[in-house]
Structures are given as C-alpha cells and as structure tokens.
Structure to design on (780 residues):
C-alpha cells in the first residue's frame, strides 16, 4: 500500500502548492481605469489561451440573458433590469471559458498520475487540466483514482451513510454554485438522514451580515435592489473590491456618477474601482478612452477600523442635528425604531480622539463623509467581506444599520442596506434550506409538506465541522461543489481533519485540492456545469438562482455536456438519497425527471416562494419579499433596533502588524487563472505581502525582499509561511495584505468570530521579518 506524505505542500511556497514560475516578478502601480480596454485585452488573451475563440463569444452572448440564457456562475450581482444584452464582465467571461475548456481529466489522466504526485501541483495546474469526465474512486493500493460506475458510487456512499452509528457523524458542505432546486434536495437528504450538519461557504463569508440584519431589522438580507442603486443620491461602499469581486457593479457606479450621485469608498486599499472606470459595453467610452470617476471620496481605515469610522459618522450626524433639525429623521425614529436614546448617548460619550485612534482616519475626513450622508436625501450602504471576516463583523454591520436608521434610509426607494454576495446563488443556498441553525418555522413546514420528522438540534457550521472531523466525530464529508480543503482556514489542520474521515465525497466539475486531501475512501462525482444542457426524462431542465438582491430567476444551460457520463447535481443528490434512504417516501426519481416538481414542493415549504413555477418564468423572475422593506420588522420589539456595541480596541502589540487576505484580480475564489494581479500592478507573483513603505523601512526591507510571515493566534500558537516577497503599497501604517488561499494557513482554526463563528481571515495578527531560509532559486 502506497503511503502518501502528511505534508502535501512545500511551506516555502504556501499551502496551496503554488510555485511561482521561473520568471522574474514585476510590480508597477496601476493608474489606468478599471475595466475598459485592459479588461477587453485580458479576455481576448484568455479566450485564445483556452482555445475558445468561437464557442466562448457565443456563450458569452447568452450569459445573464433572459431569453434562454444561463446565469453567470461567478458573482451574485443582479441581472440588468433594462435588458442589456452585454450584461457581462471580465471575470464572468473567464469563469465561463474556464468551465467550457476543451481539456479533459479522464481515466487515462488518473492512470498516469498518483495522488501523491498531483498533490505537489499548484492550484492553477490542477484546475487547468480540464473537466472531470466520469466518477472515480480512490485506490489506496496504487495511490490513484480509478473508474467506478455511478450505481457503484451511489451504493458506496449510501451504504456508508446508512451504517453510521449516528447521523451526526456526517457533514454536508455546500458551495455557492449549487442551484436552488439541488439545494432544496440536498438539505432534504441531510435532514431525512437525521442531521442539520449543513456547513456552507456563508459560514466563512457573510454569516455576520445575516445575523446582524436579522437582529436589527428582522430580515437576514439586504433590502435594497438594483432600482434603488439607480435612484439613490449617495452610495457608501465598505470593504468591497468591486472591479475584481463584483465587476458588474462598475456599471452601477459609473451610472451613479454620471447622474450626480455621491460615492464614498471605505477600504484599507484604494482599489481600481474606487477611482475611475470605462464600461466595455459603452462603445462611446471605449472609442474615446473617456473614463468616468467612480468616487467622490476615498477613506482608508486601518484593518478592522470600519466600526469606529461608522460611529464617527453617526456622531457627526447627531452633532449636525443640534443646529439642523433635518439632519436626522425624528418621525421615522419615533415610529419605527427602538433604542435610539441609548445609541445617541453612546455616540456622544465616544470621544473623537478614540474614534480617530481606532479607525485610523482623521476626524476631518470622517466629517466629510458625514456631510455627504447628511446632504443626500436617500443613501445606500453596501459592504462585503472586508467588513464581515472580523471578530466584530456583526457589530459593524449593525452599526451600518444604526447609521441608516438615523436618517430613515430604510423602506423607501433609493435607500437601505445592500450586502454584496461574492458567489452566484450563495444567498439562494441559505434561502432554500442550507442552514445548520434552521428556524422552528422552517422545520415545521418541511415536516408537514415532506411528511417526515426533521431533526431539531442545531448542526455543525464550517469551523465546528472541521473540528469534529479532526476529533473523529464526523466520519463522512460530502462536498457539494467548491474546493473545501483550500478555502477553509488553518490549512494543515483542515487537511488532517479531512484525512481522518472514513469517506470523503466531492461533487465537482474540475480537479482541485479537495480531491487530493481525502479520507480513507474517497469518490469524485463529476457534475454538469452551469453552461451545459441538463436533459432529464421531462426534457431540458432549468434551475433557479437567487442574486444578492433577492431576485430569483431561471438559468438554462446551452452547451453539450463535457462528457456523456456527467450527471446534474439534483440527479447526483437523488442517486445518493435512493441508496442511503431505501425506505424514503420522498419521490427522488420523480423530482429529478422534471424540476418543476421540485419547485412545486419548494413553493409549499419556503416563505416567499408561493406560485414558484409561474413567478420564476416572469421577465427577470421575481423578488423575494423583504418585510423590512415594507417597514415590517420581525424583531422581538416589532421595530428596527439600534445597537450599542462598544468600539473594539485595535491596538497592536509592538512589532506586530494586522494582515488581511484577499483575492488577486486574475482569480475567482480558489480558482486561479494566472499569477497576475493587473489592478494592483503585480505580474508573475502570488507569494507576496503588500506593506506600508514606512513599515518596510522600519524592518530594513526593500521591494521584492523575501520575508517570513508568522501569525499569532489567540491561543498563542504560531503559523508561518516563508520566502514571500514584499511589495510597498499605499496601505495604512501597521496593515498588510496578501492573497488567499495561500495565506489561509495563517488563520488558526480557533481564530473565528465569537459573534458570527466566521474565520477572521481579514484580521490576523502577524510579524514580518527578513527570511533566513534559502529560496528555491538560491538552493538550485
């Protein structure tokens, strides 16, 4: 029996196994507009590289298109409400071309490579091999994956699940790419088996947003929609790198700027989208190279300083109200809120000195933002992971709501909270039942409609599932999409946890790290991509997705599947269910034959999905109602609730820095397209750390010097990466930044928010010092 090494990545190059090419890195500050010709050139080169010169553009014209098109498998930004045919972006095109690649990972590929060998490949090299073509099972004797038939795979998984001593010994992870119909079946499978162990990617991303909004306004989602973005007077964008993570937002920013709306960006890094942009489908702009400013004001708080900055804005608004009665909306506060007096007292008692110290932003600049806010009749505040992946993420989102409530920016057009989801349908996953803490109301409806008794005990989230696997309490891990092994925190700990399992199951489109870090037994179940035709007994099927702003619409694949042996995600879930639950009364096969049947059941279980099949076929689908949008607050008080969280102390120990992890531009979540980051001016390099020039001088560092980065966890333990290259960057003093997933290894499994249980990947305490280890190049 072949024995694989426990250490699957060379620490000199980071936990992903990414090994920078044998070319010199380059850094040149980027001063051009976001999108525009830079995006057009990048897309052209990418399509040529993937040999999608004809099929790629044809598919692009169908993406996000209401008439028989498929939903972009990238971000969750809403489709254009005006029916714009080119509602696309650079990253969406790359994501689709990456899925449509002509390359294949078939049985011959697996026969030629052991898992131990593949484990040393980079993330790029793994996914770049192409699409998976048939089910595979790990053979420990040869250390290779070998073919297994679909019936055999289903029986292996089903038998293992049936034979568990306790249904809570299995965990069912969900990535955001799963459609609503498959999501509903997946949670039904887990709950019929007897567990609420449904960890998902929201546990690592926007959990703080949901908990905060639920507590503050009784609705766990944003209330603003795309119409609001098109009519608002002021946009405040916190912790968002729009040009890379939600590129279609650039259109909204450009249009807002053109009509005179004020735009304030709040982020430790001034990203490309926070300066100016050219929208590629604006042919006049492209022809004249005319860029539109996308910001009125840029504020750079220290990492984690958003709460103090927002408190400062509220303090300034309340001070303005002493002389201007219109600065706050007294009638709204009186009729619809509770806790205002306590919040006002807290703002008054928080000194400007403390606000400036904790935010890292000068009082004068905070007052500028407050004046913009007071001068706008209607304001939207939008945010992403730069706000949520912190210890105090829930408090910060609640502070956003506090600021909105002061001026009645809720329940009317052009106003409200607007979280930006980073992955298509991650919000729909939660809406359709992927929740380790389901409400009693949901379980009661599920029990009544589906005629079984679902478990009532809360299940495991992402962090607790990793802990449970590590302790041997979870023996089966099922991953429905995504790349769990490398997306999770504390990479080495997560690897060990997965290896402890008796069985790991990965439903995937491409080869990735999670197939190589597995349990005693492992199977890969290849599924259809979003671009591909899903043909069942009832004909070509459509699946629904929910965007960031609660719009639900259909997606219809249009390409021939990459392999005749692929199955749809609903079909895979049903196949596992029939094997694991032979006595189930649920008509699994009947559901898969026609997804309308799944939607009919969902309409009776899910609040807001009434008359699902008819409404989802309306132009642009339908919007799930948000009670808070109608000033109906499902909170204990029946009102919107102000919160009074104390400001966190962000003081650092001498010699330490605060690190935030982030994506590069040429990357989507854990999928890496190249070692370039165009908007930050980096080429041929991922193992890097951006630092303030003064922090570099203090440590005697110059550009491209190699450093060791060591994180200090709450329990005092440390984790390190070595020989990372340092790059000077305009980031606040004491702050640093680098790429995920390479730096996920630095986030200890115990470093998660006590408010949201999210890993605090954007607020790690680190030390940086010149490396005393020889680099690979020096060793050679």
């Amino acid at each position: 029996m072949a024995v694989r090494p426990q250490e699957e990545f060379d620490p000199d190059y980071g936990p992903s196994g990414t090994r920078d090419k044998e070319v010199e890195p380059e850094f040149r500050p980027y001063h051009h507009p976001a999108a525009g010709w830079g995006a057009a050139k990048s897309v052209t080169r990418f399509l040529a590289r993937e040999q999608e010169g004809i099929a790629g553009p044809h598919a692009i014209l169908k993406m996000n298109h209401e008439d028989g098109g498929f939903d972009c498998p990238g971000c969750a930004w809403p489709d254009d409400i005006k029916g714009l045919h080119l509602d696309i972006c650079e990253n969406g095109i790359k994501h689709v071309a990456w899925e449509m690649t002509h390359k294949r990972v078939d049985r011959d590929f697996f026969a030629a490579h052991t898992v131990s060998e593949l484990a040393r490949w980079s993330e790029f090299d793994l996914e770049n091999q192409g699409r998976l073509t048939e089910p595979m099972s790990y053979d420990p004797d040869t250390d290779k994956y070998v073919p297994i038939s679909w019936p055999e795979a289903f029986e292996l998984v089903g038998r293992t699940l049936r034979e568990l001593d306790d249904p809570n010994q299995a965990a069912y992870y969900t990535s955001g790419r799963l459609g609503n119909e498959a999501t509903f079946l997946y949670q039904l499978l887990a709950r019929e088996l007897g567990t609420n162990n449904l960890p998902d990617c929201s546990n690592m991303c926007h959990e703080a947003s949901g908990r905060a909004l639920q507590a503050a306004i009784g609705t766990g989602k944003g209330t603003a929609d795309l119409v609001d973005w098109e009519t608002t007077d002021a946009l405040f964008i916190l912790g968002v790198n729009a040009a890379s993570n939600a590129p279609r937002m650039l259109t909204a920013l450009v249009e807002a700027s053109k009509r005179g709306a004020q735009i304030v960006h709040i982020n430790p890094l001034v990203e490309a989208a926070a300066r100016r942009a050219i929208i590629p489908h604006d042919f006049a702009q492209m022809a004249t190279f005319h860029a539109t400013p996308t910001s009125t004001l840029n504020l750079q708080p220290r990492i984690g300083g958003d709460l103090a900055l927002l408190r400062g804005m509220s303090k300034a608004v309340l001070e303005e109200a002493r002389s201007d009665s219109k600065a706050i909306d007294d009638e709204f506060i009186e009729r619809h809120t509770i806790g205002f007096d306590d919040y006002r007292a807290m703002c008054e008692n928080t000194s400007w000195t403390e606000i400036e110290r904790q935010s890292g932003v000068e009082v004068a600049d905070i007052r500028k933002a407050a004046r913009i806010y007071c001068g706008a009749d209607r304001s939207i505040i939008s945010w992403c992971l730069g706000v949520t992946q912190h210890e105090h993420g829930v408090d910060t989102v609640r502070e956003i709501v506090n600021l909105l409530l002061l001026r009645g920016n809720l329940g009317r057009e052009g106003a409200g909270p607007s979280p930006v989801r980073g992955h298509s349908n991650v919000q729909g996953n939660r809406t359709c039942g992927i929740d380790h803490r389901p409400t009693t109301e949901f379980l009661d409806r599920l029990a009544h409609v589906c005629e079984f008794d679902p478990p009532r005990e809360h299940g495991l989230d992402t962090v607790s599932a990793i802990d449970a696997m590590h302790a041997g309490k979870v023996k089966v891990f099922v991953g429905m999409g995504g790349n769990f092994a490398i997306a999770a925190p504390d990479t080495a700990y997560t690897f060990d946890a997965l290896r402890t399992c008796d069985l790991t199951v990965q439903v995937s489109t491409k080869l990735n790290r999670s197939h190589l870090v597995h349990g005693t037994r492992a199977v890969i179940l290849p599924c259809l991509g979003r671009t591909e035709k899903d043909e069942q007994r009832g004909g070509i099927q459509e699946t629904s997705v929910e965007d960031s702003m609660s719009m639900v619409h259909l997606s219809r694949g249009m390409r021939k599947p990459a392999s005749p042996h692929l199955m749809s995600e609903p079909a895979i879930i049903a196949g596992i269910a029939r094997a694991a639950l032979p006595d189930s009364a649920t008509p699994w096969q009947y559901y898969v034959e026609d997804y309308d049947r799944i939607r009919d059941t969902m309409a009776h279980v899910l609040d807001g999905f009434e008359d699902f099949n008819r409404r989802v076929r309306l132009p642009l689908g339908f919007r799930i109602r948000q009670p808070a949008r109608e000033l109906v607050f499902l909170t204990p008080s029946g009102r919107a609730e102000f919160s009074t969280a104390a400001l966190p102390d962000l003081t650092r120990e001498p010699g330490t820095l605060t690190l935030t992890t982030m994506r590069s531009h040429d990357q989507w979540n854990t999928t890496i397209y190249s070692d370039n980051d165009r908007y930050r001016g980096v080429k041929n390099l991922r193992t890097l750390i951006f630092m303030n020039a003064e922090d570099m001088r203090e440590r005697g560092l110059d550009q491209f010097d190699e450093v060791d980065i060591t994180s200090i966890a709450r329990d005092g333990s440390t984790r390190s990466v070595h020989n990372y290259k340092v790059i000077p960057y305009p980031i606040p003093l004491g702050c640093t930044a680098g790429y995920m997933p390479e730096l996920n290894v630095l986030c200890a499994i115990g470093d998660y928010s006590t408010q949201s249980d999210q890993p605090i990947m954007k607020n790690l305490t680190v030390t940086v010092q010149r490396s005393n280890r020889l680099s690979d190049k020096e060793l050679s």
About this structure: Confidence is low (pLDDT under 50) at residues 1-20.
